[in-house]
Design brief:
three-stranded antiparallel beta sheet, seven-stranded mixed beta sheet, 2 domains, 341 residues, homotetramer, 16% strand, Aspartate Aminotransferase, domain 1, alpha/beta, 14 helices, 40% helix, Aspartate Aminotransferase, domain 2
Chain lengths: 341, 341, 341, 341
Amino acid sequence: MKMGMINLMNDYNTTAHPRVLEAIKAADGKRFTGYGTDEATAATAEAIRSLTGCPDAGVHFMIGGTHTNLTAISAFLRPHEAVVSPLSAHINVHETGAIEAAGHKILTVPAEAGKAKAVDVALACEAHTDEHMVKPKMLLISQTTELGTVYTREELKALREVCDEYGLYLYVDGARLGCALMSEACDLSMEELAGYTDAFYIGGTKNGLLFGEALVIVNPALCSDFRFLVKQRGGLLAKGFLLGIQFGAIFENGLYFELAGHANDMAAKLTAGLIGAKIPLLAKTESNQVFLCVSRETLDRLAEKILFERWAREGEAGTPIRFVTSWQTTDEEVASVLGLF
Amino acid sequence: MKMGMINLMNDYNTTAHPRVLEAIKAADGKRFTGYGTDEATAATAEAIRSLTGCPDAGVHFMIGGTHTNLTAISAFLRPHEAVVSPLSAHINVHETGAIEAAGHKILTVPAEAGKAKAVDVALACEAHTDEHMVKPKMLLISQTTELGTVYTREELKALREVCDEYGLYLYVDGARLGCALMSEACDLSMEELAGYTDAFYIGGTKNGLLFGEALVIVNPALCSDFRFLVKQRGGLLAKGFLLGIQFGAIFENGLYFELAGHANDMAAKLTAGLIGAKIPLLAKTESNQVFLCVSRETLDRLAEKILFERWAREGEAGTPIRFVTSWQTTDEEVASVLGLF
Amino acid sequence: MKMGMINLMNDYNTTAHPRVLEAIKAADGKRFTGYGTDEATAATAEAIRSLTGCPDAGVHFMIGGTHTNLTAISAFLRPHEAVVSPLSAHINVHETGAIEAAGHKILTVPAEAGKAKAVDVALACEAHTDEHMVKPKMLLISQTTELGTVYTREELKALREVCDEYGLYLYVDGARLGCALMSEACDLSMEELAGYTDAFYIGGTKNGLLFGEALVIVNPALCSDFRFLVKQRGGLLAKGFLLGIQFGAIFENGLYFELAGHANDMAAKLTAGLIGAKIPLLAKTESNQVFLCVSRETLDRLAEKILFERWAREGEAGTPIRFVTSWQTTDEEVASVLGLF
Amino acid sequence: MKMGMINLMNDYNTTAHPRVLEAIKAADGKRFTGYGTDEATAATAEAIRSLTGCPDAGVHFMIGGTHTNLTAISAFLRPHEAVVSPLSAHINVHETGAIEAAGHKILTVPAEAGKAKAVDVALACEAHTDEHMVKPKMLLISQTTELGTVYTREELKALREVCDEYGLYLYVDGARLGCALMSEACDLSMEELAGYTDAFYIGGTKNGLLFGEALVIVNPALCSDFRFLVKQRGGLLAKGFLLGIQFGAIFENGLYFELAGHANDMAAKLTAGLIGAKIPLLAKTESNQVFLCVSRETLDRLAEKILFERWAREGEAGTPIRFVTSWQTTDEEVASVLGLF
């Protein structure tokens, strides 16, 4: 990457938050048992049980989002059981067929602002009636969604109800769960969210860690033998304690939420400025992602100063692009970016 | 783990070598493109191509050994093609069926001191004659083996020849490749080893990194689309640059080999002392693992001062145990351990 | 099933055509080598090579359509490679996730009258750009389609061209290939169709056999080791000669095409009558399936005399139903059916 | 095959028993609902429930042995669960990795006369202690074994007990179950055998049918959604009624057992003659397979008159060969064969 650019490319392009790095440094000279069986990891798992209000949950520290999703689905579903997800879901588009490689079909429902609606989930279930078709058994949604939007309590409750009606597990891909819970648009607490799900993961990679996601298995029926699956899929890190340490640091004194809140604030400021400049947005900004559409001229101008992603090909209204803020984005950077419009 | 114990449990129970941690720290404030597409990773890959004498090799930084093995095998073999490996191979015993979960049968050959012999590989191939049986297509060996022994040039050459005769790829699991190459018993250079293989990986987790293995695909026919497979199996780390940075640091000024050599030296000293004390060894010590057999009384005495692994159940000759040395093991520790016998 | 009903339920509800049964009977007392290695099977395979104008094709006799599709896809594709098919394709809807269970994602394109269009295939390929997404590698279409329509030469040529442009194999699910080739709407010969494909299968189950499909692998690059895959997926019938005998009988003197042509004729007569009676059709009748929409009253009346399938739930225009004709359907039955409208 | 040869090659080289063919012929003109949902199939399933003394069993008619095994294992086991079987088991040697392709590891135990012993099963279970290894969950044995031997009640009871102790399902591959139950060496009734198992299949292909195996799922916990798996693996025959009809015919008036008993009798006569001629046998003849060892001279002489299989390469004691008798083998043929020694 060029030096001196403002970085709105994504939220995973630097090492880690200083307090995470310090926690690793503080472990210098300590010795840990392998594969996440150490005491630091156990303590962090217990902290997460407390934080999520799930004293009996299975908590597993995983190496990344795709790996978490494919391992959980392998563990939870039988071969003929399918996952329902919005068309735009990461598992459906950006995981190179990881779920299918694990043997499971993904049934898609329309994504409205990135979100699945209960009525469409019901329709998908109703359409699968016999043994000539897969059996829908899990609803997978992302919080925040791939468009940076968030499910409200009412929306999540409706999805929980349709899952109960049709016998589906509700699984939340929380790669950006911090930003979701800190969103102005979200009226859910961590505990409430947990209560609506069978399992979900708390993303670390995109909110300050070197790497790692914390999977919380709320439904006790899904807990058994999970570590076998993690090992079988190649995700049981020899130095598993690295994950326990990092998550321990990021949840200390609410740092996780502080970082996510800051990222959201920066995105909100960016959005306010863009709206003021009458730049068309492609989705409502509800977390740390801002989707906008720019002319070719603007695109070229931005590209000289800012790192960002082109979200799709140029259309009639211009080129869709994405700005992602993070715990590292500063007020000055936001001001500089807005100065380019 | 209890404080103050001498740690011979394994070679992956502390964070990382200081120079690795410093390299990560030095990246503070830098921004990297995602998924290992960054320049630091590219430079390290190039260094590994140079180090291995394979200027056209595919080099991929992977998250762990089991994941490397299952991804490579998924990429290299068709569904009916099988892996031949020694009975004691890690993939056969300690990967929770990861290879089978990827769809491939493992055919075992006897392991003599942990090593496969060409004649047994030939027999296994000869026994598979038609479409009612799987088709052997890859020989997988570990260097060092699961018993800490090493293949010599002559042994590896013989295996390469039998692979050529029967159309097998030769793949080397190098979780402890540093210790193998630094072994007194090994007359192979990195370049020579590479030249005999179709692919192999250079283990980082057990020789000073936080985590990570470097897969080197020597055979150009096996290179295509490999990153698709890494992503599909959930191993394409968002912050892939962390692997490029770590391997960059460990290969700088030969640190990788220095650490491995030290571990071997410590094991050699331990071994010399044990032999002097007439303690029966279960295998020749050729790298950083020492296998011995102890009485119940000795076992109890050792367990108060040393962390180590019980390798098998108590037999007539006593209980088999394993000592693993690492770059952190000191002369003082070795002396203390020997003082207990 | 109730006696005396007119059977328009499907084309696989009786044993087999008399000449097929006679051929099996004629084999009484003969002894055959196992697993399709017999001379009768070899002769039939050779006849199919001749019939399709593919002297070097791999010809394999398979036990059923779903099994053929999943085995072929397992054999032809690497794990990250995906199948493109129309949304309504049998593999996507009615095979209980068989393709995903074999590890491959299905990418759907819109189905217009059951058919994929080249432009949509191109769009699907263009949308898959890197290793975060699956790699489209095969286009699978059905001839006839799931709506009984057929691809013309021009349409198939256009699909072949888009496949060539994007490096896709073209595979034709020919469960009802006889009816397709005998369709008035189809200007393709068997040889021409074969020439456009990499592989296709000629359906036997739905056109007079007890069971069986003949897979023709036109592309020599896809032929290797195919029998290993058939065996691995459980489809290498011990008495494989039963398939060679049946296909031998059905292709003798053009019986296969005669039966398909008759089924088409009966559907055409039905259709003409329904149009005359101003019954709305849901698709153009181009082969042996007729899709119509009936009022609740008509539905009840038909259900007393005819066996047929309700294709979807009742909508505003009535209930969609399907009539399937076969080699057994008679003029009298058609007249009786039309008398009910 | 050459005409006029005596056929001891295998028990699946002719079409079917006349009464089976007649039953199919008798269905001429009848119409059946698809996929085994017809009344003939239901009646046969009920007859099998009665015959096996399992009034609540799931009964499924399958297309072949390998397909039955892979489908059952897919349905019964989670991904990390493994099958224990004797080293010589068909699933381990002669199914082209079908079980591994379905994702499951096979753990082998020594085969003594083709049979697993409880003590070895216990050892295999004891050796698998944690999540780094697969979890043994099913014992699969063949009755008769691959060497034609049979498990006695005592042996089966001991295996059931070890299964109960270690939480394994007990599954019996009954490709030649008729010959097992009719064996002089077997003191088990069909009901007793069923009572010891969680599931087993009754082989039809090798005892008079065109094709087909009847899977009986005794354990109610394993019954759910099984038809989904059959369809997903490509084994739900459109004309499933063909299997119901054939099994209906073969179980009528005990024909199944009569045919198997005859095959056993012929093998017993052959064996008596061979023993009289001092020909070394490789295994005790307990059913319809006779394993013997012959000199090169004898081999050549036999090969002129008899079709048989060479079981292994020539060794010091000669060439191991196999004679298989069937319901079609005659006293005259046995006499002729013995005349050649």
